[in-house]
Amino acid sequence: MHNTYPTIIWDFEGTLAYKPGLWSGTLMQVLDEYKPNHNIDICKIKPYLKDTFPWHKPDEPHHHLSKPELWWSHIEEVIANAYQAAGITKEISIHLAQLVHQRYIEPKSFILYDDTLYTLNYLISQGWKNVILSNHVPELPKIIEQLGLGHLISCCISSATIGYEKPNPEAFKIALSMCGNPKTVWMIGDSLNADIVGAQNVNIPAILVHSKYTDNIKYYADTLKNTICIIEKESVT
To answer: pTM surpassing 0.90?
Structure first.
C-alpha cells in the first residue's frame, strides 16, 4: 500500500546541517583540549580514518553493528587506532576515543544551514513529508530532535541502525518502506555517489546541493530554497 503524501528523503550532514571539522576535526579538538602542547598535525591522523568507517564500504552490510553499543565499539577502536598511529599511547588513545564519541553526538556541534528551517516548513505547508536517510551515528534521531527539527521530520533513519550505507540500494528500499512507499519521492543530498547516484539507481530522482556542479547532474541547486523550484516544477503532487 502506498503512502499518499509526496515525500522528500533528505541526507543530514552536509545537506540540512554541517559539522565543522567532521571526524578528523573532532579528533583534533579533543586532542587539543586533553593535551594542548602536542605536536601532532591533523595530516598524521587523517590517513588512518580513511576507508575505516562503515560508509567507506557501502557494498558490505553491517548488521553485526546495528546496536549502538556495537557500532560505537567499532568506531572507538578505529579512532583509538588513529591516535596510536599518530604517536599517542594506547591507554590515552582509548580514553580520547571515548571523548570523541561524546563530542561527536553533541547537538550543538551541528549547525543548520540558514535556509533549512524555511525549506522544511515550506514543503510541509505544500503537503510534502520530510524524511531523513543519512550515513550517520545511532543517535541521529536524538540529534534531530535537539536541533529543533523533530516536528518537521516524519521519519529519521540512520545507517548505523539499519545495517546498510548509502548508496547501497537496500538503504533506499528500507527508507521507502518505512515512509509508506510514496508514489512521489525525491532525494536531496550533498554526496554525488551516496545520495544522487544511489537514489537514481533505485529510480528516485535526486537533487545535488552544497557540492560542486558537474555536467552529468540532472538536478542541481545551490541552496536548499532553490530545491523547491525544481521539486514543484518537476513533480505532480
So the answer is: yes
